[in-house]
Amino acid sequence: MGNIGTVTLVGAGPGDPELLTLKAARLIGSADVVVYDRLVAAEILAMIPPEAERVNVGKSTHHHPVPQEEINEILVRYAQAGRNVVRLKGGDPFIFGRGCEETARLAEAGVPFAVVPGITAAQGASASTGVPLTHRGLARSVRYITGHCKADEMLDLDWAGLADPETTLVFYMGKATIRLIATQLMAHGLEGSTPVMAVASATTAQEQRLDSRLDRIEGDLARSDLESPVIFIVGAVAGLSGRTSAGCLCTAVLADPGAERCHA
Q1: What are residue 58's phi and psi, to 5 degrees?
Q2: Is residue 173 annotated as part of the catalytic site, yes or no?
Q3: Residue of 29, 80, 38 lying closest to 56 (CA atoms)
Q4: pLDDT tens per residue across span 153-203
Q5: N or C: fewer beta carbons within 10 Å in the chain?
Q6: At what angle do helices 99-108 and 68-80 cross, to 10 degrees?
Q7: Among candidates 167, 196, 166, 199, which has minimal Cα distance to 183?
Q8: Is residue 105 classed as helix, strand or coil in its secondary structure?
Q9: What are the pLDDT digits (tens) for 100-148?
Q10: How far apart are CA 208 and CA 171, in angstroms?
Q11: Would you call 37 a catalytic residue per the annotation?
């Protein structure tokens, strides 16, 4: 084996190419090989050098033309051939991006690797809609949750722990399971009136938003034209959607003496 290359897992962010980090842009522009996912923006792919090799390993719901195990081996093979590889992933590589599965295989094969974080979809949607994920007096914590299980297994989550009215829940990949998510959260104590905001293609020109509530989101989503990728923000902060600014409820919230004890 000759000189071994390196693999860098790079987060491409939530969609808007201007949200790409400077480090990510530099690495993309100097790569020998770019192995990329379906959700990477065309403007970001345009940064790849013309002489670099492109490998599309994108997945969609129920359609995985390149299994994860094969993606792992692709990365190893290119690196062992001495190529400098960028593994380009939507969002952040280590937030529902299966990045650790890839780095584990690289470590096993003795391939040097690094990880460059990206802005995840929850942060992107929060910024583009003006809906905060935490807010003093409304939400003291936030949880990111997958709405999709490996091999389409049943979604089995700690529903009792999730059904906290002072926690913002952000569900990724939950369009196909939103009925189960809503039903279980209500069964475990969240009110049906809990606000829900669905955001499709967050931060892009194609962004779409749907304001609903827990007991209506399934029907509202079915009647909408939102297409994947969709994330769902569940909790009191979602009720701020459509306001002129995320801070417009501050006066009302702080009018509650108990609100002072809560810090976002």
Answers
A1: -65, 145
A2: yes
A3: 38
A4: 788 999 999 999 999 999 999 999 999 999 999 999 999 999 999 999 999
A5: N
A6: 40
A7: 196
A8: helix
A9: 999 999 999 999 999 999 999 999 999 999 999 999 999 999 999 999 8
A10: 16
A11: yes
Q: Is 16 a catalytic residue?
A: no
Separation CA 86–CA 12 (nearest Å): 11
**In Å, what is the CA distance from 224 to each residue of 60, 113, 211?**
20, 42, 11
Q: Which of 32, 47, 164, 173 is catalytic?
A: 173
Catalytic residue among 16, 32, 37, 92: 37
Q: Which residues contact 138 (CB under 8 A, 6 or more apart)?
A: 166, 235, 236, 237, 249, 253, 262
- Which tokens in the block code for residue 67? 């299994």
Report the sign of the C-alpha dihedral through residues 110, 116, 120, 123, in that order.
positive
- Reported pTM: 0.88
